[in-house]
Design goal:
Layout lengths: L1 E4 L7 H17 L3 E4 L6 H9 L2 E4 L10 E4 L6 H9 L3 E4 L3 H15 L3 E5 L5 H7 L6 E4 L2 H6 L8 E5 L5 H14 L13 H15 L4 E5 L5 H12 L3 E5 L15 E6 L5 H13 L4 E4 L19
Parallel strand pairs: 1-11, 1-12, 2-3, 2-4, 4-5, 6-7, 6-8, 9-10, 9-11
């Protein structure tokens, strides 16, 4: 058996920044440092930071007044910001700059009087954070069927934004359906989907063109972008599996398999990729070849209060 390794894969600039924010906060302020929700959607990253004194909470009411508190990379609502202020928390915002861009874009559409449509998965932290940054009605949808069933006032002026970690192909279909029904709708087309999400999906498409029999995607079950990679493989006719780490690989997946594709979601550490490759070697892989891919050079600055001097 042989492996084709996707490129690029793993951490994106937003995830790198979010993790560095937590590490820098621990360095400057000492433990404990509180993080609202998971800083990024990866169990190994969260467990590692927790072992070093980070406490992950579901609500700000769990945070002692005055404590250092970090908002996750997915962004938060205005209500959360107000609650943090009322509790006197020392807030550090780790929201990915690309998510912040969507917030500002949505707010701008709203100021112009548009009814806003948010293309994304209801309940996802990024979607809830974006929704909570917009005054007035917001319609959240994620499928063509939902577009076809959408009811809005005849006189409504419409605009849309999207979650940053969606499937490019699925989102294109939803946007096309919106434009077909509402020709005057305004929106960013696919520009809200982050560069890293696009690059990793393109890399999986290149893997499927290599004739892989199986695709292994490294990432946690609650990682939107990792799930989209596995779905893309399945849609291409390849048996695709999402695993947290090497322990999730089942030998029976590789029976009668010649070529295996391996990639990792944007919140999965490269160390997990190497552990998966080692496990695959134990199971009979004799050759690992990394494909050529898009070179990523994006770097996001740390918040001013954490910048190294």
């Amino acid at each position: 058996m042989e492996v084709r390794l996707a490129n690029p894969r793993g951490f994106c600039a937003g995830v790198d920044r979010a993790i560095e924010i937590v590490e820098r906060a621990l360095e400057l302020h000492g433990a404990p440092v509180y993080v609202l929700h998971e800083i990024v959607h990866n169990r190994h990253v969260v467990d590692d930071l927790a072992s070093r004194g980070t406490r992950f909470v579901d609500t700000l009411e769990e945070v002692p007044p005055g404590s250092v508190t970090i908002f996750s990379a997915h962004g938060v609502s205005d209500e959360v910001v107000a609650t943090a202020r009322s509790r006197g928390l020392k807030v550090i915002d780790a929201t990915c700059p690309l998510v912040t861009k969507v917030h500002l874009q949505a707010q701008n559409y709203r100021k112009k009087g548009h009814h806003l449509i948010l293309i994304g998965h209801p309940g996802h932290p990024e979607v809830e954070g974006t929704r909570g940054r917009i005054e007035g009605p917001v319609t959240v949808l994620s499928t063509v069927a939902e577009v076809e069933a959408l009811e809005v006032p005849a006189e409504a002026s419409l605009a849309y934004v999207t979650q940053t970690t969606l499937s490019i192909d699925d989102t294109r279909e939803v946007i096309d359906a919106l434009v077909k029904r509402f020709p005057r709708i305004q929106g960013p087309e696919l520009k809200d989907i982050c560069y890293a999400t696009q690059n990793r999906q393109n890399a999986v498409k290149r893997l499927t063109e290599e004739g892989i029999d199986v695709l292994i995607v490294i990432g946690s079950q609650n990682s939107s972008n990792s799930n989209r990679l596995a779905e893309l493989g399945t849609r291409s006719g390849v048996r695709s599996y999402l695993v947290d780490d090497a322990r999730g690989i089942r030998p029976e997946w590789l029976v009668s398999t010649q070529r295996i594709g391996v990639t990792a979601g944007a919140s999965a550490p490269e160390g997990l990729v190497q552990e998966v490759l080692e496990r695959l070697r134990e199971l009979g892989v004799s050759d690992v070849r990394e494909l050529a891919g898009e070179t990523e050079t994006t770097v996001f600055k740390l918040p001013e209060e954490l910048a190294r001097r």
